[in-house]
Amino acid sequence: MKKFFLKSIFFSALACTMIFTSCDSDDTTNNIDEGQTADRWITVAGALMQDEAGDGNGGTKVFSVSKANAKNPEYAIDVYKNGFPVPSNRTARLQSTVDGKTLFNVAYTGDNGGHFSKYTVTGGDKFPAADVVVDISSYAGTSPRWAKLFDGDKTGIAVNVTAPKVITGENDKYLYTRGTSTVLALDLQQSLISRYEQYEIALTETEETKGHHIFRLDAPVLNKAGDKLIIGTWMRKTNPATGANESNFTRLGSKSVVVDYPSLKNPTVITSTVGDGDTSGYRSFNAFVANDGNIYQATQRGSKGSYILKINQTNQYDNSYVFSLDNALSVTGTYVDAWRYAGNGIAYVMYTHAGVENQGFIARVDLNTKTATVVDLPYQTGLDFGQYQGFVVDGDEVYVAVTPVGKDGNIYILNSKTGTVTKGAKLVNGAGNHYIGVY
After folding, report:
1. Which N-terminal stretch is annotated as signal sequence (predicted)?
2. Neighbour tally for 313: CB within 10 Å
3. What is the pLDDT of residues 116-148, one digit of tens each?
């Protein structure tokens, strides 16, 4: 396979020009998959155990089937025996086109960490690779976070923060902790870097002198107007007296970084007074533009469980919108592992909560009424969605993979309009392994 590395100033400058010629102002952006695709492939992904059951660090395999087979509970899929190994030292970071006919991957860590690849989905274990691999590691590191924008499968955004450094002044007085942030745009059609920007992102002086800082960026989303990216943050705190990270601290309000698009310049930080959890998600999308034009964003690691926050069309948090999953589900300590907007104000949330161990659930959430109901599925210990990545939204149908670690499970098709649940193809598992997505 020919490798294509964009590392020269000339090519970076050329690519920066290309993004403006390819991003016409009349283009519309929409975080909602439009309608059903009749001949769509359904690709499942499985993560292999490396050292411990469920760690998912032994690599990733994928296998694709027709929608008819995906919906057939008599049909069995064994991705571990029959699947295609996606190049990645640890769990591959996968995305797919809306029609399911192309799969994208950014390898995570190792010698090929930060390599972007594109594959055509042709059924079974056949995933012919494009003859171009783009190495973004020089800009975004070997472990970048990335997400596809909902802009007609044109663009992916990779983000990274270098290890934050403690900065001191005169007499070793603590000033702040910061890393260098990278925001990089990938042209998914042409397989090239179209633009990148690097900068330090400061909080307020008061927040920084107390040691608060951005540890990680993740889960970028493009606003309805198509002129701003909102990027989730994972916050940490340095002890100003010792320079060490604090494991327990009073959290700030939930924060996101807003940058201009497509220039990726002018980073600013917005803060919610509703939630105090991080907004970075983990391995899946964490924010979506809904039908009402506003962005809805989940939180993690909050002091009062997870919230769904609202960012309005002026790119600010709407602090009048209060949606606590603890309250909606009548539990405590909710934690959103992954979620997906399905249209018309309905979303599906994979979560866990206090009092259970290695136990995940799925809830059908109404963003308009701020209510949530648990989806009727065969829940059992070992059903852990902590590494879950992929959902397929195909019209009113949402495809998910439900497998406890080391146990067989199934694809389930959730109807976002009616709330009904249909059991689909059997997913054959292996010891210590689990399925992490449908694409």
Report:
1. 1-15
2. 15
3. 999 999 999 999 999 999 999 999 999 999 999
- Within 8 A by CB and 6+ apart from 198, the residues are 139, 180, 181, 182, 183
CA distance linking residue 318 with residue 271, whole number of Å? 10
pTM of the model: 0.92
Residue 277's SS3 state is coil
Q: Are strands 76-77 and 421-427 parallel, antiparallel or unpaired?
A: parallel
Mean pLDDT of 100-118: 94
Instruction: Identify which of 297, 278, 279 has the alpha carbon closest to the alpha carbon of residue 287.
Output: 297
Could you give the CA distance from residue 16 to residue 258 in angstroms, rounded to a whole number?
Answer: 20
Instruction: State pLDDT tens for residues 187-244.
Output: 999 999 999 999 999 999 999 999 999 999 999 999 999 999 999 999 999 999 999 9
- Map out the domains of the chain with their CATH numbers: 9-25+38-438 (2.130.10.10)
What is the token pair recorded at 157?
Answer: 């955004």
Please give the helix or strand (H or E) that residue 363 lies within, else none.
strand 361-366
* 255 beta partners: 271
Judged on CB neighbours under 10 Å (0-12, 13-18, 19+), 110 is middle
